[in-house]
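RECORD TYPE: inverse folding
INPUT: structure tokens
STRUCTURE:
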């Protein structure tokens, strides 16, 4: 049995959604759009200090004050819920983004997972034929 997306027949493709920076500009969030990640004042509540962290390349955000987070669709949904006191489902959020001509982009990074400890570089892979583990032998086991 094959599964397909319900909205696959619509324009824009099934893997596109509004970019996070387009949604943040739409809701007048004061942030530096020249940087990939950073902090800003949260548009969901009255915020005196920046508690809204964002990563534009991954399209994710998180407010450390109110505990909300997610992607661009979640930001539209939460903004309407908390500021305008309206509840929107996913189809309404998607229609809102299309109605306001929010710039669309890819869903996620195409490069896949990278290590945050390595400054975003990919993790090293095991060589073929290598034993599992790091290869370290304690001094008391060495002969």
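DESIGNED SEQUENCE:
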């Amino acid at each position: 049995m094959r599964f397909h997306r319900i909205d696959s027949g619509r324009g824009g493709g099934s893997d596109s959604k509004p970019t996070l920076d387009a949604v943040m500009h739409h809701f007048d969030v004061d942030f530096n759009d020249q940087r990939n990640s950073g902090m800003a004042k949260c548009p969901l509540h009255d915020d005196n200090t920046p508690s809204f962290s964002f990563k534009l390349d991954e399209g994710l955000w998180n407010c450390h004050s109110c505990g909300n987070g997610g992607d661009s669709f979640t930001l539209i949904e939460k903004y309407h819920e908390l500021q305008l006191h309206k509840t929107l489902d996913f189809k309404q959020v998607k229609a809102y983004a299309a109605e306001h001509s929010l710039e669309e982009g890819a869903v996620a990074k195409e490069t896949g997972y990278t290590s945050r400890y390595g400054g975003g570089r990919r993790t090293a892979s095991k060589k073929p034929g290598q034993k599992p583990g790091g290869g370290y032998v304690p001094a008391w086991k060495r002969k």
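NOTES: The first helix runs from residue 20 to 26.
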